[in-house]
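Aim 2 progress update. The chain analyzed this quarter is reproduced below.
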Amino acid sequence: MDGGSEDQRPVVCVDLDGVLNLFDTWRAPEYFHPPRPGAREFLIRLNEAGFRVCVFTCRWFEWAREWLDENQLGAYVAEVTNQKVPAVAYLDDRAICFRGNFEDAYQQIVSFRPFWEAQ
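Predicted structure tokens:
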């Protein structure tokens, strides 16, 4: 995990694979899909709106940071982590939002497919 804890802006956590990049299937630990069109502009808008962007990923954070920098996204990301950090929102291609009803959550889980898989 890289630093940035002195920054007091509200945090938004954004997933790397499937959100910031064009993930469609796992290929190898070192393979990173290309950036999703609009990812840079999205990160810029979050920063301009006063958020501190944290990218979360299961990948080794140093490789993820390198990918962000190589794709001109790193300047808009305060932190890269593989841990769930306190945030006002989490943006993930595999997330289900719990709305207080376990049956609804269960149904969403058992029928879940990420948007990038064929429906």
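DSSP finds four helices and four strands in the chain. The longest strand covers residues 11-15. These observations will guide the mutagenesis experiments scheduled for the next reporting period.
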